[in-house]
Design brief:
membrane, MetI-like, MetI-like fold, MetI-like_sf, about 250 residues, mainly alpha, transmembrane helix, 11 helices, transmembrane, about 80% helix
Length: about 250
Amino acid sequence: MEAILESLGLAQSMELLALSPPGWGGNLLRGLANSLQIAFGAFGFGLIIGLFGAYGKLYGGPVTRDLLGIYTTVMRAVPELVLILILYYVGTDLINQAAQAMGYDRVEISGVVAGIWVLGIVQGAYATEVLRGAIQAVPTGQIEAARAYGMPSLLLMRRVTIPAMMSFATPGLANLWLIATKDTALLAIVGFSELTLETRQAAASTRAYFTFFLAAGALYLIVTLCSGVVFARIEKWARRGQPSLKGGSR
């Protein structure tokens, strides 16, 4: 095996990507774990914001709809990098100012919490529009039937609206998840050790830029392929009992 790698000129690259020192493979995997941790947290936080935001836009009062409209417009108009810098630095400064005003010491916010907070707010704006469109796609007869039986609003949302809208929302949510995994790379600018920053540090230390950035791209690709399989299964589950899309196109 070593002879084959040597003949292909890959022996040095494999040494650099080894999991134990002097290889940097362990650092890349640690960065990937941090990226996925933030992506999961931000995606979940964004879903919560998006669900309440969608209901607020559809059923809230004029003030609620206007505020949510401003929120979604600003979050989708301003580039993610600018939003990350604003929310990261301004947000942490406001939290510390509020803590000091109440007589507490400055709060040390971990990079994971800050990353989830920042990306979650950005994700929430997109999730609001995805879920709003999915809710509007639910046949009104199903909701009216549930209300006719006296089903409370929260129970109606849990048993009727959310299950019925999942087949419409899943493709959009899958895209949001992939965006969340890639947006974690932007956190490198604020010094958080996710995959991109670990890759830059490894490449700068060894001057093997092609090797490490190619490895990072392969890791992102693996995450994307695995995510595609998972969301395909979720969409299949959400569409159970519904007419097949292939059959409907004939």
